[in-house]
Each structure stands twice: as C-alpha cells, then as structure tokens.
Amino acid sequence: MIQKFLYLEWKAFFRSASFATNLALKILMGFVAVYFILIFLALGVGAFYILKKSNLDPIVTVNKFMIYYVIVDLIIRLLLQKIPVMNIRPLLILPIKKSTIVHFSLGKTALSFFNLVHGFFLIPFSVVLILEGYDVLSVLLWFTAIFSLMYINNFINILLSNKDNLFAIFLAMAAILGGFQYYELFNVTDYTAPFFDAVFNTYWAFAIPVLALIALYYVTFQYFKSNLYLDAGLSNKHDVAKTEDLTWLNQFGTIGTFLKNDIKLIKRNKRSKTTVGLSVMFLFYGFLFFTNGIEAYNNPVMHIFAGIFVSGGFLITFGQFVPSWDSAYYQLMMTQNIPYKGYLSSKWWLMVIATVVTTTIASFYLYFGWQVYLTIVVGAIYNIGVNSHLVLLGGAYTKTPIDLSSGKGAFGDKKAFNVKTMLISLPQLGLPVLLYWAGSSLANANVGLALVAGVGVIGFAFKDKAFSMIEKIYKSEKYATIAAYKQKS
Amino acid sequence: MIQVNNLSKTYNGTTVLKIDNLEIKKGESFGLVGNNGAGKTTFFSLLLDLIHPSTGNIVNNNVQVNTSENWKPFTASFLDESFLIGYLTPEEYFYFIGDLRGQNKADVDALLATHEEFFNGEILNNKKYLRDLSKGNQKKVGIIATLIGNPEVIILDEPFANLDPTTQFRLKKIIKDLADNPDVTVLVSSHDLMHTVEVSNRIVALNKGEIVKDIQTSQETLQELELFFAV
C-alpha cells in the first residue's frame, strides 16, 4: 500500500505546476539550492571554529541559544508549513485502512523540507564535534535529542494548524524574551541551557525529548484518525462574513470602488494577511543595521538600504504581485468596463498610504538619532516616487496566479521569477544606494540623502507617464495573462 | 447586433472553432448547444475578447471586440466561477459590479428585490463569502449580477448546470422575460436541449467547432435536435 502512496507522491511532485517551469530556470534554481546547501554546510562546519576563536565553548554556546533556534523554527513552521489535507480526501472511500492513511500522511510530513533543512546544520556540526575529540556517544545522543525537538515542532504544527495568528503570539514571545535578554532584564537561557547541557553531558536526558516525540506522535495520530471526516478534520473552515459598505470611500469615485475591494482583499485572505505580517517584519529589519548588531551593516551606505526596506516593506511585498492579486477573477475584470488607470491608481494609493503609515510608525527609530530617521523618511520618499512605479511595472510582467487562501509563497514565488521583473527591480535598491554613495563621497551624507529624495520627487512627477506605460503592457499582455491565470497552481 | 466574420481558433494545429459567418440580430434569444469540446465556451470567450482569434473577428454592436473595448459598457456575461470575487459577500459583489456599471446602491437594491424569489433566501444576508457558497448558489449570484445596469447583450455559459429544479424553472422565466425585451440580446449555451429550446427563439448546434444546425425554434425543434444528438 505504501508503495502505491509513494507512486502518487512521485507523480504529484514531478507534475506540480512549479516544476514545469523552463529548463533555464530549473538550472538556476538548482544553483540557488546548491548555494544554500553549501552555506548551511559551511555554517555547520564553521560554527565550531568561529565560536572557538571567540573564546567561547562551542557546545555550551550552541546549547545556550538552542531555545531560540527551537522557537524560531516553530514560528516559521506555523507560518509556512502546511498540512496537505486535501490529498487525503480521495483516499477515504478506497479500501484502505484509516490508520494507514494517517500514518502515511504524518510520515510524509517527516520528510518535509522544514525538517530536513536542520540536517544541513546539525550533521556537519556534530561531525566536527566528533572529529575534535568530543565523546562520540554524547554527540550522537545530543544530535538525536535536538532532531527530536525539531520533529516535536513538526507535530505541534500539525496539531495547531488552522489556528490563525498563533505564529504572531510566538513571534511576540520570542521578541520579548530576546529583548529582555539583550537588555539583561531576564535571561531565559539561564533556565533552558541546563537542560540542553544535560542532554549532552548525561546519557539519560536525551530520552526526554525522544519520549516526548513518541507521545506526541501518538496523540497526533489519534487526533487525526478520529477527525478523518469531511465535516471534521478535513473540512474547509468557513468564516462568518460581514458585509462592509465602506461608504466613506465613495467620495473617491472609481478609485474608491477599487480601494474598497483591495481593503477587503487584504483583510479577508490568508495570503494577503501573511504579506502584511511580512511587511511588519521589514519594519524591524532596520534594527540589524542601526544597532551595531552586524558590523558590516553599520555604514551609511547600508543605512539607505535599510531606509528603503523599513518604509517600503508593504510596497515591495504587495506591489510586486499587482495584478496577480486579482488573478482568481481576472476574467471578470477583463469583461467589465474597467478603466486601467483607476485600477492602478487604487493599488498605488494603497501602497502610498501603507508607506506613510509605516514611516510614521518607524518614528521609534528616532531613538537612534535624527540622521537615522531622516534616512528612513528619505527612503519613504524614494519608495513613493520611484519604487511604487517600478514594482507596478515589474508586476505587469509577473503572470503567477495567486492562491489567496494559502499563506505559502508570500516569501517570493519561484514561478514569479523572470528576467524582466529582475531587471526592473534592480534600480529599486541599487539606484538609491549608488546615489547616496556618490553624494556622500563627493560632499557629505546630507547631500547624498538630498540626491535620493530628489530623484524620488522627480519620479513622482512622472506618475502619469509611468501609469500609461504600465497600461500599455497590461493591454499587450492581456491574453497571455488570462491564459496564465487560468492555470491553477 | 453581433456579426461573426471568418472566425477561427486554432491550438497547436488543431482547429477548435471555425465559424465563417453568423449574424445574431438585436433582441434575439440565441441558444448554443453542443457536446463537450464543441466550442461553445471558446466562442463566448472570443466574443468577450478573453482569447485571441486565430483568424477573423467578431463585431458586437458595430464594435470589433478584439480592437476596441467599447463593447464592455453594454455587454454583461457570466461564464464560470472565475467571474466571482471569492472574498466578497454577495451584496458586496453586486454593489461592486453596480459601481463599475454606473449604478448606485439603490438601483442595485431595487434589482435584487425583484429577484428575491430566485435567490430563495439562500443568498442575501447569509453571513457567507462567495467562496463558501455552494456551486448552485454561486451561479445564482453570477447570473443576477449580469442583469445589473440594463445591459443590451447578456452572455450566459451553461446557466442551468448545478441549479436545482425549482431554480431552473425560475431561471427559464427570467431568460424568457429578457427575450421578450426587444432591446436585449440573450446568448445562452447549454447541454440540455429541452431548456434551450424553451428559452431560445433561435438555436445553433455546434459540433467539433463548426455550425451543424441553425434553426428558428418551433414545435419540432426539440425532436430535430434530439435526433441529431442521438447516436
């Protein structure tokens, strides 16, 4: 029976829409994958020696921060790892035992990328430990325990799936713990490190996570098995809908009509909500640059880079998928009497409003001084003036249908990659950095900022020109776009 | 009203639709029948400029549809669920379409009120998004949305499919009422010969992309069609 399942999985994998991209892209993706595997391997091998060089005991340091590794892993899983319940439906009426179906479905998640990726760090790290003369058995037990924790996360995620906003709670928890630790108010690692140390130093402590994993697997199995009904575990969740008129937007005419729709789009779909969450994360991205956390980041040229990201998180994550947000009903849009200009303006206004709001919220960066906040404001001006047009222009070439009901893919869709979009996105970050660098090395930092802001203002003046250009692309790509959106991923 | 000239659509060397000449007059109630793959949806998609014709063109009320967009204000259509916006409630969807067609909330409400019976209490004020409605109820929303703003050309692809018997009956009445209006041209496609014969005064049968029958509806039409499709 398992054989037959594996056969189905094999077909599903090789016939998935994302696999059917062109050869060049596949090769490129292959290179990217190899690159990341090498990075992880290097990190796994290098972590030991880097820590050693900074006069830290490698295993003690890793154990100390292991709690964060575990929490972050869980957050990422809650956000991205999905349980493929739909694939189970057709199996229910076939002569297959329910327990076989559940075992297989759970077993399948064990092979998920989210579990295997840890191997790239943990295996080389463990090998280095052994080579460096640590007790082989201790290392193996430690490795088993840590991997069990990763699998515990895997099953926790399954049990907690379909519960919205949990990841935000965990994220807030991690942020608070991290903040407390940074300012030395409360150190959670004081309480967790002894456990991880015990796993390494004793021969019995590793059993705790392993037994917990076995127990959790049993619980998950029972839970799934008892919920294997179309109206229970396999049901699609229905939200209670409320009609919203948003009449205050009527005063904006056609733009108001589309804005109403866009606001509902963002509020009511998982994918768009994930995008908003992502742009909030971008808001805090600046901490990496302004806190001296990473030395290489703390130079003025990198600051303007941060300024673009902090104020433009939403603009970049949302804008690059216009008009794909409307892909599910693109045929409707194409048969209605829709002025492209109104449609585009609505998206543009949405991005502008979001950028202004983010920049206002980002005023907490004033803590790091006027210069830092000024950089962010200049970034916002450039975003509104130039980047808003560039993302819309790039989006016009992006023909990836968006599945609004799934949070997956919010971090960038591999199918959404094409050369045109990439070329268009280069000046989004490259140009301001270049301008700022030129300005600050020829005169001073403020001249650099003025240059960037100036280009932003000029870009703003070309709004109509940019819009009519995008409109032309929409028209010339119309049939190809409709055909592409029809192919459900 | 609608004039088809030398129209054809070819995919990878296979011709899926070939109509040399077809004229649909203003006020006509036009029924399109045919088996799966006969080209019904392809024809409607070409008429709505959703796909590009391989040769020829369609002229809708003196507007050539693949070169100008001026047919949009007077043409309304519902082909499938991809014409619905899943995350809206039915009311919001109707108002959105109304906004695009220059109808205010009161106009839309008045139209919805006349079709309360058709909705059968399952559509309005139901606290459900369109994506969570059943196929049949989604169809009801799509069909009524085409009536917003008094369009002159109404295109419905398989409107009877997925509807319950009572609703099919009510839909027939709606289409017949539209057909009685000399200013409205209705185009309906269906697998169901009986329904089509009842609501249309002219029926065209497609087979493998070509017109095989073009008849004004009469007493004998149903028999004639049944004879043709019975193999």
TrEMBL record, chain A:
It comes from Flavobacterium granuli. The chain crosses the membrane at residues 23-50, 62-80, 101-130, 136-153, 165-183, 203-221, 274-294, 300-322, 348-368, 374-397, 417-437, 443-462. The lineage of its organism: Bacteria, Pseudomonadati, Bacteroidota, Flavobacteriia, Flavobacteriales. Keywords: Membrane, Transmembrane, Transmembrane helix. This is ABC-2 type transport system permease protein. InterPro entries: DUF5687.
UniProtKB/TrEMBL annotation, chain B:
It comes from the Bacteria. Keywords: ATP-binding, Nucleotide-binding, Transport. SUPFAM superfamilies: P-loop containing nucleoside triphosphate hydrolases. Pfam families: ABC_tran. One of its GO terms (molecular function) is ATP binding. Residues 2-231 form the ABC transporter domain. This is ABC-2 type transport system ATP-binding protein. It comes from Flavobacterium granuli.
